[in-house]
């Protein structure tokens, strides 16, 4: 694995470790995160998680 691809994986792993805290903050900080704005894979992950969350709200009813 090249240094560049190792760095990208490391950045993704770091972002994904921080993701629960970013989501829990419930503000725009998630969408302003530098890694998310530059990484298509992590953006796709967030989109998928948002779809799952939306589906679960639809399935179980919105309870906020």
Order of helices and strands: HHHH
Average the pLDDT over all residues and give the rounded result: 82
Helical content (DSSP H or I, runs of 4+): over 70%
Using only C-alpha atoms, the radius of gyration works out to 14 Å
Beta-strand level of the residues, as a percent range?
under 5%
- Low-pLDDT residue intervals, each spanning 5 or more residues: none
Write down how many β-strands occur, each being a DSSP E stretch of 2 or more residues. 0
- Report the span from N to C terminus: 44 Å
Structural class: mainly alpha
Largest sheet: number of strands, sense, barrel closure? none
Principal-axis shape: elongated
Features:
64 residues, 4 helices
Question: Could you characterize what this model shows?
Answer:
The model has no long low-confidence stretch (mean pLDDT 82). Helix content is 81%, strand content 0%. The chain has helices at residues 3-24, 29-32, 34-38, 40-60. It has one domain. By secondary structure, it is mainly α.
Short description:
The chain is 81% helix and 0% strand. The chain has helices at 3-24, 29-32, 34-38, 40-60.
Explain the layout of strands and helices.
Layout: H1 3-24, H2 29-32, H3 34-38, H4 40-60
């Amino acid at each position: 694995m090249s240094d560049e691809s190792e760095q990208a994986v490391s950045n993704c792993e770091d972002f994904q470790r921080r993701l629960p805290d970013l989501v829990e903050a419930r503000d725009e900080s998630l969408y302003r995160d530098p890694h998310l704005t530059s990484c298509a894979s992590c953006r796709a992950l967030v989109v998928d998680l948002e779809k799952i969350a939306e589906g679960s709200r639809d399935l179980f009813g919105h309870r906020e």
